[in-house]
Structure prediction request, 406 residues.
Amino acid sequence: MTPYTILTTALVSLSTNKLRAGLTLLGIVIGVAAFITLMAIGRGSQQSITERIESLGSNLLFVTPPFSIDGSSGLTLEDAAALVDPVFTPTVVDVSPEISTFAQMVYGRTNTSAQVIGVTPSYESVRLTPVASGQFIAQHHLDNRTTVTVLGSELARELFGFRDPVGQSMRMNGRRFTVIGVLEPRGGTGIGQQDFQALVPITTAYYRLSAQRTTQGGITVQSITVQVVDEESMDAATRQIDTVLRLRHRITGQSDFTIVNQQDLIETVEETTETFVIFLGAIAGISLLVGGIGIMNIMLVSVTERTREIGIRKAVGAKRRDILFQFVAEATILSIGGGGVGVLLGLVLSTVLDGVTLGNQSFVTVTSGDIPVLAMIVSAGIGLFFGIYPAMRAASLHPIEALRYE
Prediction:
């Protein structure tokens, strides 16, 4: 039999039971569409996180203390100030110490929970967070521990709607704060995202919202972001920062802080999110596996129903390989056909979901050419794998026994 004859025979056989073939096809369609959609969401999340880190700048170092159960830190505000020294740290341009906590925020009848970041005036330039309206936190706000705040764009919209927040008063953990500015949108929504944060003076955050004092009485910070003069000076800046902090902390052994390069942070995030993407792909792959089992089930039923047909075809001269190829062709047509429709459906769903907000989370999808190709290869492989056994069973039938089958 020629390939054309095998193909047309397979199509005729499938068309005799359209409903059964359609339901079998549907299993592959759902599996492929789920695979493409979930992979697109996973890669979109990976790209979104990486872009947010890169948007901070390419010349940043992050100094953090080791994890502590009681939340205490070995870094202080004085440590941050000591890192801006033209003699000991000539490669450091500026630093931004930070304290992070969560607070309940109330304005009128609106009540929400959001992350609060205690910062200094340098945060605006170091972390590239300009204000869209109003002003940023100034030094006199730190000196006086003023209860003022600069809101992220999404948080301002959540609390104040279409009103201008600047100059308005709100409550943060029961304390009255005055809004002095609103940040420009950075992208991303939801609790913990940059646009859903409130910035307050670091002294206000420490003494009025989440006080954690050291034994020396200094202001402890959870992290220090260091802006380096350029990318080429990152290694030199790391050595200088390490030397200054070890001298201040009087350390001779292992350091009580960690210095992370921004590129190292991006690589770590990419490795973590890649695991997440693979996990999503594996979940979608289960749907494809179920669809493949459905193909095997239908093909076994088809072999049983067409036993006499197989016997007649063998009796008139059909060879074993002709029967084998026919049933493999039927299984492959089901898988490839379902795969093609599933690819189209998956691409449509990925496009539709891009930018859609569910609750406080906005979906970002990224689809590259390798995802549909991989989905088609997997679906075709599943058709071949799960179609071979029924085909071999059909090809191995003895013509006389097949003709006697009732």
